[in-house]
Amino acid sequence: MRTFTALDDLADEPVRGTAVAIGKFDGVHLGHQAILTRLRDIAAAEQLESVVFTFRENPLRLLRPDRCPEPLMSPDQRETALAEAGVDVCLMVPFDERLSSIPAEAFVRDILVGRLGTRHVIVGPDFRFGHRGVGDVALLQRMGEELDYTVEEVSFVVDDDLGRVSSTRVREAIGQGDIELATRMLGRPVAVRGDVVHGDARGRELGFPTANLGGAVEGFVPNDGVYAGWAIVDGVRRMAAISVGSNPTFTPEAQSRVEAYLLDYSGDLYGARITIEFVHRIRGTYTFSGIDALVERMHDDVRETRAMLNGGILRDEC
Ligand SMILES: Cc1cc2nc3c(=O)[nH]c(=O)nc-3n(C[C@H](O)[C@H](O)[C@H](O)COP(=O)(O)O)c2cc1C
Ligand SMILES: Nc1ncnc2c1ncn2[C@@H]1O[C@H](COP(=O)(O)OP(=O)(O)O)[C@@H](O)[C@H]1O
Fold first, then answer.
1. What spacing in Å lies between the alpha carbon of 262 and ligand 2's midpoint?
2. ipTM above 0.95?
3. pTM of the model
4. Residue 203 CA, ligand 2 centroid: distance in Å
């Protein structure tokens, strides 16, 4: 996949004869994947390049920061998911004053047709575009008759079990601790990524050293609590008991952070970039009366993690 982070870069390396899907694609969930499947099929059938037109940040960050939700993915995670979906070209441009002031008609004429040579446009439900969001599917279609492209609106993915799939519902599911539902709507694990930093060096004394994620953590961090999941280090996936919290037993005022105890592992992870995938929420974060109570509970958490990830078979040892 070729990625462009500025529209002007298209002048140096033109992309012509395209099918274009436009949207935020936050989460690249099953609904987005339905759009990308159509995009790929249409592009393949007509020997066009498949292009995703998306934004680095949610447009609401500029337009209505008070209503802008936390993203489900970092731009890098989104780019990876789009590449995995078989997209040829990703345009991930900043949604800035300049882009937001382009009128809907000019967006179609100058960008979709002028710069991308669009033959087909594929959008999701309720798609709006152009300055003040005045452009809609009807306008896209009207302009397509004149400018010789077609438009397809892919409807919501509504599943008997999952209901309607949307980024908002994925956030809600994670917020309610239903990691399983979020995972099914995403069609991939709920995952965060970050660098392992030093903590308070307490973990190893408790018998549970934990890799603490620091710096800018990519992805949507679930609510405080304890989770069963996986830690992926250098491409190797290991079972992990994960804590998201401020360790209130020790540091009630601290900021919440993500830390993972990797089962059956000992080694040095400082400085490594690791991915943590959440599979199941075990419990909330408690303020224990002392270290012994915390450690006893952590043993249970580890047993439960192993049971969850081994398909529900509890073994005697932990
Ligand atoms: C599985 C697991 C469950 C945890 N549960 C709690 C908890 O309920 N309350 C709490 O205060 N800390 C909890 N912690 C966090 C520990 O307090 C923390 O890992 C320990 O203080 C080590 O911190 P350090 O990495 O900064 O050395 C948990 C950690 C793990 C790995
Ligand atoms: N099983 C393990 N799970 C997580 N980290 C481990 C494990 N074994 C060794 N480590 C190492 O120990 C470090 C965590 O130890 P800890 O005492 O909790 O210190 P800190 O407070 O700096 O996180 C990790 O960053 C990693 O380098």
1. 9
2. yes
3. 0.94
4. 7
